[in-house]
Amino acid sequence: MSAAASLLLTKSEWRSLMRERLSQLTGDERSESARRAVECLLQQTWFREAQVVGFYRALKSEIALDDAMRQAWSVGKLVTLPARDNGCSEYVWRSVSPDTNWEKGPDGVPQPVGTGPVEGGALDLVFVPGLAFSRRGVRLGRGGGYYDRLLKPLRAFKVGVARAFQLVDELPAEPHDVQVDCVLTDQELYKRRDE
User: Fold this and answer.
1) Which residues span the domain enclosing 149?
2) Rounded distance between C-alpha atoms, residue 108 and residue 128, angstroms
3) Could you count the other beta carbons within 10 Å of the beta carbon of residue 17?
4) What's 180's domain CATH number?
5) At what angle do helices 27-41 and 66-74 cross, to 10 degrees?
6) Region 153-161: what's the mean pLDDT?
7) Is residue 189 within a helix (H) or strand (E), and if so which, with residue range?
């Protein structure tokens, strides 16, 4: 799809398009794309040098970074994940370890139980899921704005994580949308193109 054509789609239309495409992936395709993305991730200097890393627990349609999380623990990095308490409208970063207990959060996403909060300013690196990303670093999330509000105050290096077909030329953006610094796919690492 051309850049001009992609801007004609609304965020809602992009979400529907990507959800449909993601729903067609087989379990083997999901596993293989996660394996390739993690293999690339582990080779990056920004991953090796980061001390406090923000991960996410993958939904079925997202690239799982569990192997990268295990690697981070094995070399002594502080691993954090977003969590949202019932009745609370915003996510916070919580530290996690291999022994952390998990529960379904308010959105049905597994989140850590009984772990301490981590100030967002402490994070060096954050992995960000999305339904799509543009080559300019625009992220299309699920529509609640939770990740935009979680990411906005961070100075951390932000890495969008997606499959290659989720990296598109252009996406509609609004002033509150937080951009990522690069996009890691199962086929390449794409550094943001600013224009």
Assistant:
1) 3-191
2) 18
3) 17
4) 3.40.50.10420
5) 30
6) 96
7) strand 189-191
Average pLDDT along the chain? 91
DSSP secondary structure code for residue 105 in this structure: -
| Residue 183 neighbours by CB under 8 Å, 6+ apart | 133, 135, 137, 159, 160, 161, 162, 167, 189, 190, 192
Facing residues of 93 across strands?
82, 118
What is the identity of the amino acid at 102? W
pTM (two decimals): 0.92
Q: Which candidate, 99, 169, 178, places its Cα nearest to that of 145?
A: 178
Contacts of 38 (CB under 8 A, 6+ apart): 65, 67, 68
Identity (one letter) of the amino acid at 152? K
Closest CA to 56 of 146, 135, 122: 146
Over residues 19-61, the pLDDT tens digits come to 999 999 999 999 999 999 999 999 999 999 999 999 999 998 9
Domain count, the chain: 1
- Count of CB atoms within 10 A of residue 191's CB? 11
